[in-house]
Amino acid sequence: MTQDAPPPLLKLRDIRKSFGTLDVLKGIDLEVAPGEVVSIIGASGSGKSTFLRSINAIEPADKGRMEFEGWDFDFDRDSRFFPTDRQLQALRSRIGMVFQSYNLWPHKTVLQNVIHAPMGVLGQSRTEATEVADALLDRIGLYDKRDASPLRLSGGQQQRVAIARALAMKPRLMLFDEVTSALDPELVNEVLQLMASLADEGMTMLLVTHEMSFARDVSSRVLFFDQGEIGEEGPPSKVLRAPESPRLQQFLHSILHDDLRTSTAKKGLIQ
Amino acid sequence: MSEFTHDVLVYGPGFLSAAWTVLWLTLVTIGVSWIFGLAAALGQRSDMRAVRSVAAFYVWFIRGTPALIQIFIIYFGMPQVGVRLSPYTAGVLALAINSGAYVTEIIRSGLSAIPAGQTESSLALGFSPRETMRTVILPQVFRIILPSITNEALSTLKNTSLLSTITVVELTLYAQTLISATFRPFDFYIAVAVIYLVLTTILTQLAAFFERRYARLY
C-alpha cells in the first residue's frame, strides 16, 4: 500500500469466535482500504468462511471490534458498543454477500429476487427498484430471464443473479464466500468474469476462494488462513509465488494439482 | 310427485342450512387453527425456553387426547370455572385448538424443509428476522405444506360432526333430529354422507386450484 493510502473502509481488530470448545477464529486483525480486493485462502476448517460471515454478522463474532462506515462495534456482549439488532440490519444492508449455494428465493422471479431488498429494506418504489434491477440484469446478460424462475437458470446464471441482487443494494463492500465452488467447471468463468469486472470498477471485495489463478490475477492482497489465524499475508506475488511458511507451501502444493486441472478452462479469462 | 322429490322439497332447505353451518364453522375453524398452528410452530423455535415449553405442551396435550373430550372440556367443563360459551363459539374454539396442534406439526415440518441459506441471504441483505419469515420463508412453507394442510382441513370439516354432541345444529344433528321423527336412518345418513362428500370435494378442488397456481410460479 502507498503512503498516502486512504483511510480504511473496514477495520477489524482481534476478531474471535468459538463453537463450543473449538476456537475457530483466534484474534484476526484486518484493515481493508477502499477498492481493495482481498482473497482469503486456506484449508477447510481454517475459519475463513466463519471470518467472512462474522463481518456482516450473519454469525457474529464473540469478541472483537469492527469499524465500518462510521460504525464502531464491539462484539463483546457486555460492551456498550455491542450492536443492536437494528444496527446489524443496517450494517448488513451496506455489505453485499454472495454465497456458495446462491440462495436465490425460488418463489420469486429473477427480477423479484433483485428488487425485494431495495424495496423492503431501502424503501425504494417498485419503479425505482425495477429500473436499477433491469440495468443490473442487462449487465449480467440475463435481462431476458427477468420473469423466469431462478430454478430454470444454470448455476452460473443463478450465481450472477445472486451477485446482481447484492449489488442492487449499492453496497460499499462485497463478500464472496466460495461462490464458484458449487458450479460446474464450465460455468465458473462467467461468474469470475463478473467479479473481475467489479474489481476493475473499484468495488471493495473480500473473497474466500479456491480459485488460485483468480486470487493471483485479481486480488491486491491474499490472506492465508491457518487454524483460525492469519498465517501469512501480502500481495499475491509474494504469498502465492514465494510462500514463507511450510504450512502455506504445503497448502499450495496440495491444491496445485486441482488448479492446473481447471486452469485450461479459465484460459483467456483475465489478462 | 315422487317420494324423492317430496323429500327434497320438505327436508332440502333444512339440510342446506345445516350444510351452510358446517361450511362456515369449517372455514372459521381453519382460519383460527392456522393462527394457532403458526403461533405454536414459531413458538417452538423461540429463543425463550418458556415459550418453547408452552408450544410443546400444547401439541403434546392436544394430539394425545380425543377431540370429543376437548370439545366437552370447553363446552361443559369451562362453565364450572366461570367461562360460559355458546355452542358455536365453544365448538369453533375447540376444533381450532384441536386442529391447530396438527397444523403446528405440519408447519414445523415445512419450516425444517427450507434450507438455512434462504434465511441467511435475506438477513444478509438487511431484512429483519420477522420480515424474512414473512416474505421469504412462509410463502415457501405454504407451498410445501399445501397438500398436508388440505388433509387437515378435510379432517376439520368432518370433525364438525362432533359438534352435534353440544347442540350445534349442523348436518349430523339435523339428520338425527329427522331420524327420530321419521325412523328412516338409512335414507338420512346417506343424505348426510353425500352432502359431506360435496363439501369435501369443493374443499379439495379449492386446494388443487391453489396448488396449480403455486406450481406455475416455479
UniProtKB/TrEMBL annotation, chain A:
Its main location: membrane. Pfam families: ABC_tran. Residues 10-252 form the ABC transporter domain. Keywords: Amino-acid transport, ATP-binding, Cell membrane, Membrane, Nucleotide-binding, Transport. GO terms for cellular component: plasma membrane. It is a peripheral membrane protein. GO terms for molecular function: ABC-type amino acid transporter activity; ATP binding; ATP hydrolysis activity. InterPro entries: AAA+_ATPase (IPR003593), ABC_ATPase_HisP-typ (IPR030679), ABC_transporter-like_ATP-bd (IPR003439), ABC_transporter-like_CS (IPR017871), MetN_ABC_transporter-like (IPR050086), P-loop_NTPase (IPR027417). It is found in: Cell membrane. Belongs to the ABC transporter superfamily. This is Amino acid ABC transporter ATP-binding protein. It comes from Antarcticimicrobium sediminis. The lineage of its organism: Bacteria, Pseudomonadati, Pseudomonadota, Alphaproteobacteria, Rhodobacterales.
From TrEMBL, chain B:
It is found in: Cell inner membrane; Cell membrane. Keywords: Amino-acid transport, Cell membrane, Membrane, Transmembrane, Transmembrane helix, Transport. PROSITE patterns: ABC_TM1. CDD domains: TM_PBP2. Residues 19-207 form the ABC transmembrane type-1 domain. GO terms for biological process: amino acid transport. GO terms for molecular function: transmembrane transporter activity. The keyword Transmembrane applies. It is a multi-pass membrane protein. The chain crosses the membrane at residues 20-43, 55-78, 188-210. Coiled coil: none annotated. GO terms for cellular component: ATP-binding cassette (ABC) transporter complex. The keyword Transport applies. Belongs to the binding-protein-dependent transport system permease family. HisMQ subfamily. Part of the binding-protein-dependent transport system for glutamine; probably responsible for the translocation of the substrate across the membrane. This is Putative glutamine transport system permease protein GlnP. It comes from Antarcticimicrobium sediminis. The lineage of its organism: Bacteria, Pseudomonadati, Pseudomonadota, Alphaproteobacteria, Rhodobacterales.
